Amino acid sequence: MGLTNKQKLWILKNRGRISPAKMANELSLSIEEVTEFIEKQSKEKAPFYFYILMVIIPLLFFIILEICLRLFGYGFNNVQWIDASETKIGINYEIGKRYFQQYSTIPTTIEDTFYREKKDNSFRIFVLGGSSGAGYPYMPLGSFSRYIKRRLELVYPQSTIEVINISMTAVNSYTLRDLFPGVMEQSPDLVLIYAGHNEFYGALGVGSLISLGQSRSLVNAILYLNKYKTVELLRDLISWLVSLFNTGNDDDTGTLMSRMAKEQQIPLNSELYFAGLKQFEGNMRDILLMANEGNVPVMVGTLVSNMKDQPPFISGKSVNLPEAKEIFNEAKEAYLSGNFIEADSLFTFAKDLDELRFRASEEFNSIINKLGEEFNLPVVQTVEAFKKVSPDGIIGDNIMTDHLHPTLEGHQLIGKLFYEKMEQTGHMPKSEPVDLSNEQQDNLTKAKFYFSPLDSVIALYKIKLLKNDWPYITKDKQVPANILFTPKNFIDSAAYDVVMGNNLKWERAQRKVAGRYLKQKNYKAYKNQMDALISQYPIITEYFNIVANEFLKIGKYDIALYYLEERYSIKPDAFSTKWLGNINLFNGNVDNAIKYYEESIKLDNTDPQLLYNAAGAYAQNKEYLKALEMVEKCLTYNGNYPGAVNLKKSLLLLVK
To answer: Which among 134, 267, 268, 257 has a CA at the least distance from the CA of 198?
Structure first.
């Protein structure tokens, strides 16, 4: 059966551009018939399912593409939480790639971990912020969150204390807002926030090199979509295309924040300045609304800066405002004349006039206090507390390492302030506290604060490196590293290698220094060094056994016992159970010794020493048949084990 003229016309019309005259000629039709058909076809609507297919087909394509990309493991792992051990999880060490796609090195957190399944007696706190929140330059052990954790552990020993600090260098409220839903999923008892200094130049900030514009809705939508592999693929394709036209002359040196300061000059009260304030307030409000909806209490700290000893980085001219450097000079004159109240006010004004917005202006603290009132949440007033410990009431180098990062004492002070606010508002563990005054708690916390001489030198070198770069000095005045750093001993050399990235990570440097102390038989320093390492990585259970073994070698059984018990509480192994049995047997606790020996044998029944000692414990407990069984197993694995043959002979006489 041949085609009708109507069908032929439809085919010709959809073959491409063809004139009505040509259609009429090919089909032996009149021009009028062809024109009438074309007009009728243009008025006809496509079937409704045609429009549905137009939506479904692309959607199915992207769904299938997303599934395939995930199955084949494309890109980086962008989930928020990953396994850290059999029972604990932590934030994904690659999470920074969500915000720093174009950088080869990305910021990381201080690697806190917590139980996958929250325990009944757990008190769980999350800490969010930037580099100050993370404890810079004393990372990972010097953050204010470590003070809070240590003090809670001392005062509430019956509770499982979990303080998880997910602060990162060079991030701002966009990152905090993006991570907050994941925090809410982990059932926090409290969230602490110390953030705001990075609002302009931090990742995606309005003045940042990696800004996506001033629309919060757009930026937050893109951050949400970044979790999908399809978007990651598209982003990688765009980056690849951009790289084709890249001259390769980009400056990749200096600190991350210095490289990200795209819009370097942001005058006070400028359009970009107000955009940064709006960005911060909007994202913080979103966070607090989420917290309210999830019934999670939040505390926010005001922001401290170095006022007296940090001149403005960029002093620009403005029609309506004075130059920052002029006001700073006036502040110094007022200070030298003893007018400290006026000096403090002028130093603060000079800081706010600084057009390089590395330090948060006072309007950020006003926003924090305003949100505190609006949401009825506690605000920790850090500024006033820092003034109280500063000479003449003006914050300077006495408590700050640079323009905005506190000293170790400063970080501990922030921790103390948050802790005291927690006490005032009743946000504390439910277990019974130890009876200690606030002063005793603070003193004990600082005395037992895990921090080593190596960490101090690393921090010192970090600050030296920071101040040997823009914006502190210009490139032509930078001092070469071999002159800037003059290591005088083994610790200095290890710190140098860590800071300069000479293939020595923090964890390995700690072990290297501890090993040197051990060779010198400086056991106290060795213990302190390993305690610092263990406090950072309690999930690496081998460290407990390593330290215990070194003290067992020199007969310090009381010290070894602590590490063995800690290892046992995390997960018993053959080593810890055997030596817990040995120490208990030595101390005359035969029943406890047998308990530990039996656990150890289940884990490793081929250790002759274990079997011999277990035989001795059973014999002391007058369980001669079990003792005989153990000594025979011992001789099976080592027929010449010292004392085993004689013990067997004695036991044979006793069981007859």
So the answer is: 257
- For residue 66, pLDDT beyond 80: no
Q: Does residue 162 sit in helix, strand or coil? A: strand
- At 308, which helix (H) or strand (E)? none
Cβ contact 355:386 at 8 Å? no
From residue 630, alpha-carbon distances to 275, 596, 616, 626 in Å are: 76, 14, 9, 6
What tokens were used for 494? 């290890």
Q: pLDDT tens digits for 122-137?
A: 999 999 999 999 999 9
Kindly state the tokens that stand for 237: 């394709």
The rounded distance, in Å, linking the Cα atoms of 326 and 347 is: 11
Q: Tell me 143's DSSP state.
A: S
Strand order across the beta sheet in which 160-165 lies = 160-165, 122-129, 190-194, 298-301, 379-380
CA atoms of 159 and 152, how far apart (whole Å) = 9
C-alpha 407/C-alpha 459 separation (Å) is 9
Residue 255 CA to residue 394 CA, distance in Å, equals 28
Phi-psi region of 75 (alpha: psi -120 to 50; beta: other; left: phi over 0): left
Q: Which residues pair with 91 in a beta bridge?
A: 81
Let me know: does 594 contact 621? Beta carbons within 8 Å.
yes
What digits encode the pLDDT tens for the residues 74-106? 777 889 999 999 999 999 999 998 888 777 778
First to last CA, the chain: 109
CA distance 353 to 327: 9
Task: Calculate the CA 401 to chain-centre distance.
Answer: 21
- Please write down the long-range contacts of 24-31, taking CB distance under 8 Å and 24 or more positions apart: 29/5
Pairwise CA distance, residues 97 & 58, whole Å = 28
Any idea what the Cα angle at residue 145 is, between residues 142 and 149, rounded to 5°? 105
Strands (E), 137-177: 160-165
